[in-house]
Amino acid sequence: MSNDRNIASFVLRFTQELWEDAQQEPHVRWRGHIRHVQGEEENRFTDFAEAASFMQRHLTQLTIDSLSKKREGLSQEKMMQESFKLWEQFASSYTNVMFNAMEQGIKQSKAFRDQIDETRDKIFRAWQFPLNNNSDFDDDYLNKKVSELQNQVNQLADRVKALEKKLSEMEQS
Fold it and tell me: Reduced to 3 states, what is the DSSP secondary structure of residue 109?
């Protein structure tokens, strides 16, 4: 019994892009890059199904190339069926893997947003800004508070200048 081995290797790389649209709604997009190591063909994708198709195309070609060597006693139909079992298993588990990955991403995103909200609330409490239930502030109110803070900073700067002037005069005398 002859036991031939063929190897097909793929390198996958994913890049995550996070952004907010004009309505400040968060968005996530995954981009991918897949490369067939032995043939060095590569492809970029935004849908993982494209990467799966890329792999399936190369693995199918590998099987077809093996079949073309005319092996005695081997049924081509049987070999193709055996080869496609991998894709049946992949298709049945693909949705679970992707769902779990998205669910984990959502949990991490929520935890990150909660951290940002908590930090923002601490800062606003430190500056004595009142907090609403939904953490949205009236723009006019915020502008007024920022102006008040700016006036206080200007007054403090004037006091520091006056103290520095007095200190300088005392040193000269």
Answer: helix
Q: What is the pTM of this model?
A: 0.46
Q: How many CA atoms lie within 13 A of 128 on its CB side?
A: 3
In whole angstroms, give the CA distance from residue 129 to residue 90.
Answer: 54
CA 2 centroid distance within chain: 46
Task: For residues 94 and 87, give the distance between their C-alpha atoms in angstroms, rounded to a whole number.
Answer: 10
Both tokens of 53, joined, read: 């198709």
Phi and psi angles of residue 15, each rounded to the nearest 5 degrees, phi first: -125, 130
Tens digits of residue pLDDT in 23-67: 888 888 889 999 999 988 999 998 888 888 898 888 888 877 777
pLDDT tens by residue, 129-170: 555 554 455 667 777 877 888 888 888 888 888 888 888 888
In contact, 26 and 20? CB cutoff 8 Å: yes
Residue type, 166: K
Distances (CA, A) of 134 to 96, 131, 137: 35, 8, 9
Q: Do residues 122 and 45 make contact, with C-beta atoms less than 8 angstroms apart?
A: no
Q: List the chain domain ranges.
A: 10-126, 138-173
Query: What b-and-e string marks burial along 130-142, b requiring 16 or more CB atoms within 10 Å of the CB?
Result: eeeeeeeeeeeee
Q: Work out the burial of residue 35: count CB atoms within 10 Å of its CB; fewer than 13 is exposed, 13-18 middle, 19 or more buried.
A: middle
